């Protein structure tokens, strides 16, 4: 028998509230072999998970035994003084919730699991651990400090604040056993001890609505303390706390001036504990080198003003101010679960263009988010200017009109040393090109390193096909999605917006889960949405509600329900639904009370099919896309779909209201057809989106479905010449609707178009991410981002579930459905997805009438696999007839497919199709 082993995961789901990020360690959630993770877990029942690694066929779990101990020594002796589950006969390996003794704040917890499979007892896993955080408000022994008000170094008229530098000297007189730092630095912070930066995160903490909740971070700093004199240093930037663009206070939320709460807990070998707290003994200065910082405008840094050794002992801080005690933010304190932002990749220039005016244009060959790490040498006082943009105009100058009034510019003033190195701390840019002015010295590519910044999550999916355009679209999607992960899913990273719009992601978020390990990320966003809900039930268009947009439309706010339902499907964690169901019910009731007409239709919409394509590329030339076309049909169709989801969720949660949602949905369906069905296979004004929504949401009666299908295909093939014609609402459902209609050949035709409007057209015009607009090369620049996610829609879902045939049927891929489509013109697809149980792969090639299909099913799962074939006798697995192959449980006929039920393992199928 092949070697089997168990990998422990400490599964942290944000809606459960378990945890902050220990930035001192490399962590890819759900992908760590050993979760020795000192996170601050501030809730009582974390979700434990493990993965069995074994390529043997037919391996599944039949039982487990979890032990949780208060010490490693007890764990090694198999003493579960905190929790001993005993042997549990179960195949559950992904949603085992801690059910032991009450855990106190700061408690170190150790655990391991013994797994029993149908093949053998795997024995005990290696140990893993977590640490509970500060569970109670009173666990914070310190106070908030800062400077409430503008300082001489600030520019009140321009709304610019300089960086706030805080320092605290202290002494350890005994041998340190353990030291833990807890910090809330708002809006953004960088922590150092004895001159060393703590952690490799950037732009921390994760953004929230600070009036509702604030995330704290936890660090094990034991090895960073010295015996004797020590110094803590903290720099604060503005982030979203001191808001950008405060000219419209009715629209933009601002929370005040930067402030800090910090707590260092030092446990000595003699058993005593000392606390170093943020109090009025700290010193602060605003006269440091960061003279301005702003997410939209950039960062200004004057190296001549550096405080050499400011965060080390024996620094002379007599000119620094004493800090003030300041009002604490209103939000509750929570451990941060979602991964921090980090510099995830360095990108070197593809070329450097030297202009006649002395300026440099640096082309990185890729649109991304982050900044430039600069190396430079020259005279003191020389100011280097770096201006960022996504593209160039026809004259080769930076194209900045689409940035609106975001300056997107960094300034670095040299101190005059031999070689200086600098990168900003409290800003980021969306760019491909950088214009560098006044750069002294030799011009080398290594002096301008691009730093790609996004949330620290693993890429867990891969996709390749025989079509190079499909592959390039996938690559562009990856870059665009990653670029817009900033502690929340933002719409774009370059202009003066960067907001987490709900309407951008009802389908896009689903596709993203196949690429990135982002369940915690989106669970955090669900919390943002819930906490932004008004007492009457209204949900905003943007969450966190940094912009006060509460327009009450089902197509935007309904994303809350759609994403929650999707996360449950992809993660299997029922507590996601439990945590958000009351708020979702409240919103449904609010919308029905205020906006339903007598027939049950939803009359309220705000945006319509936002950013639908102009009839031609020329028709949209110079036109502003910021136009609203509210649609009662779109609102009603979407609300019907949301009612059906609420019925499904209610059934899962065994809520009696589920039946009522089903009845209300039937009422809406009847009124919808009476109002919008034209009787000839068309709905409403016969737009593609109107018909797609009616068909995909099952609003079309069975006897009329054929006519609607024919109308949709006629629209695409003839009216739109084989192209899509959807805005952000329709594109979220287009590809799945076409698959539902059995029109995957047509879906492939749309996906591989290179002419307007299409994803391929963007690429033909040089796009390296996904545009906001289908006509992004001709539209008015006011609303014309070149790095957006919303127009991806459900394309990636179609890639994985339809082209590759990787979809969950039950319990977050414990039962896998593998029924790929084989559209004409596509000869091969190779894809993988790292599920909670392990990697699922699908690799097929078609040569004439011959199909070769390799798949991998991870241990403790099974799959229903549909193989196109005329008969069972024409299907072989690893050269054997199906009934002779190990691991195949059941064989049956399903229309044009041979359906086989498989246990885990690697399989190779050959058939005639």
From TrEMBL:
Domain called Alpha-L-rhamnosidase concanavalin-like: residue spans: 354-454
Domain of life the protein comes from: Bacteria
Pfam hit, one: Bac_rhamnosid
Keywords: Hydrolase
GO biological process: carbohydrate metabolic process
Domain Alpha-L-rhamnosidase C-terminal as annotated: residue spans: 805-879
Bacterial alpha-L-rhamnosidase N-terminal domain: residues covered: 174-344
GO molecular-function term, one example from the UniProt record: alpha-L-rhamnosidase activity
EC number per UniProt: 3.2.1.40
Record-given protein name: alpha-L-rhamnosidase
Source organism per UniProt: Sphingobacterium lactis
